Amino acid sequence: MKTKNILFGLLLSIGLFAGSCSSDDNEGETIIPLAGTYNLSKTGTIVNGAEVLVDAPQNASGCSRDYLELKLSNVAVVGDYDSTVSACALTTTEGTYVRSHNDLTLVVNGVTTTSDIMNLTNKELKIKDKTTGIITVYTR
Q1: Residue 4 — very low, low, confident or very high, per pLDDT cuts 50/70/90?
Q2: CB 58 within 8 A of CB 40
Q3: Cβ(100)–Cβ(117) under 8 Å?
Q4: SS3 for 119?
Q5: Cα separation of 8 and 11, whole Å?
Q6: DSSP character string of the chain
Q7: Phi, psi of 121 (to 5 degrees)
Q8: Fewer CB within a 10 Å sphere, N or C end of the chain?
Q9: Residues 6 or more apart whose Cβ sits within 8 Å of residue 57
Q10: Could you tell me if 102 and 128 are in contact, meaning their C-beta atoms sit under 8 angstroms apart?
Q11: Would you state the pLDDT for residue 32?
Q12: What is the pLDDT at residue 129?
């Protein structure tokens, strides 16, 4: 009886181990949810194989940072603070977004941009525009 229990435990352990190694891997895709509000932090490019990022010049001095809000309903809201007309006036523009694996496609004001999601954590969204190569870093 003791041998049967040990054999059963061994078979159960092997079954659990083999089941966890199935083909359900995410193949490098980031699985953190994309929905949320991200503040524009840095922009840049890759120069000689190294990222060169600077504080985003789009952020108006003395104002809150511009932002990108991605809603569960696939609505994208771009928030832009500008002091050209009045101090720190917020303009929001709605569009849509689609995520396909590690690609993020935004459509705002009829303009479509597709970017690679370079990094997605609970604190950061880093994307690289597939056409221009511009890297944009957003933080939460």
Answers
A1: low
A2: yes
A3: no
A4: strand
A5: 5
A6: -HHHHHHHHHHHHHHHHHHTTSS---TT---S---EEEEEEEEEEEETTEEEEEE-TTSPTTSPPPEEEE-TTSEEEEEEEE-SSSTTEEEEEEEEEEEETTEEEEEETTEEEEEEEEEE-SSEEEEEETTT--EEEEE-
A7: -130, -175
A8: N
A9: 43
A10: no
A11: 76
A12: 97
In the block, residue with structure tokens 């523009």: 93
Torsion sign across C-alpha atoms 80, 82, 84, 87: positive
Enter the tokens of residue 96.
Answer: 């849509």
The total number of residues shown for the chain amounts to: 140
* 52-87 pLDDT tens trace: 999 999 999 999 999 999 999 999 999 999 988 899
For residue 71, report the phi and psi dihedrals to the nearest 5 degrees: -95, 160
Which pTM was predicted? 0.76
Residue 92 CA neighbour count, 13 Å, CB half: 8
**Contact indicator for 38, 57 with CB cutoff of 8 Å:** no
